[in-house]
Specification:
Helix content: 25-40%
Number of helices: 7
Structural class: alpha+beta
Strand order of the largest sheet: 1-2-6-5
Number of domains: 1
Shape: globular
Strand content: 15-25%
CATH class: Alpha Beta
Order of helices and strands: HHEHHEEEHEHEH
Length: about 190
């Protein structure tokens, strides 16, 4: 049994109760629910309001599903097969202004903010998300038809939670809320450490 997740300071229960399950029901997700999550991502903060993220999605059973699903590592495909939607988070890594091409130094941070906004909105709506870095990068670039100045950062599965027992035993054993290190190991006053 996993240790209970306990906050060291006052925080909304949403932050503690949100987890990344692998067990999904396979239930279809309505467009209005999915697009509510996309709307939350849209309003994430970004440096200079550049909004470098783009979200490329497919719903289970749609013609687009296999294009995204086939990019995942086999270990993720085992459980993502029961997800309702799959989303690739893509970021504009460089910006062009005329002949000038400059790196957007905050593209990853900004895209992470969009991901977290989507994940929290999903939780508020009674859905669950699981982000993954386990995908074939070159295959994903090609499948998503990314322009030169964009890169794919992660995929996220979205679905309704199912019982852990619906998973193969080795994955079911991992369906416990993960702990976090203590705040004193993460937050420092004035300088690192």
């Amino acid at each position: 049994m996993a240790e209970p997740r306990l906050a060291e300071h006052a925080v909304d229960k949403l932050f503690i109760e949100r987890t990344s399950p692998r067990s999904f029901t396979g239930e279809a997700i309505p467009d209005e629910v999915l697009f509510s999550m996309f709307e939350a991502a849209r309003w994430a903060p970004s440096a200079s309001n550049i909004q470098p993220w783009r979200l490329i999605y497919a719903k289970a059973g749609s013609p687009q599903w296999s294009g995204l699903f086939d990019c995942l590592m086999p270990g993720n495909q085992v459980w993502v097969a029961k997800a309702s939607a799959l989303v690739a988070f893509v970021a504009e890594t460089h910006r062009r202004q005329g002949e000038t091409r400059a790196e957007n130094r905050t593209h990853a941070l900004d895209t992470g903010a969009a991901w977290m906004s989507l994940a929290l909105q999903a939780e508020l709506l009674g859905w669950a998300t699981h982000g993954m870095a386990g995908f074939h990068h070159d295959k994903a670039r090609a499948a998503l038809a990314l322009p030169e100045d964009f890169d794919v950062y992660m995929f996220a599965a979205i679905g309704k939670r199912a019982a852990a027992e619906a998973l193969p035993p080795e994955l079911a054993a991992r369906e416990v809320p993960s702990p976090r290190r203590h705040l004193a190991e993460t937050v420092f006053l004035g300088r690192f450490g």
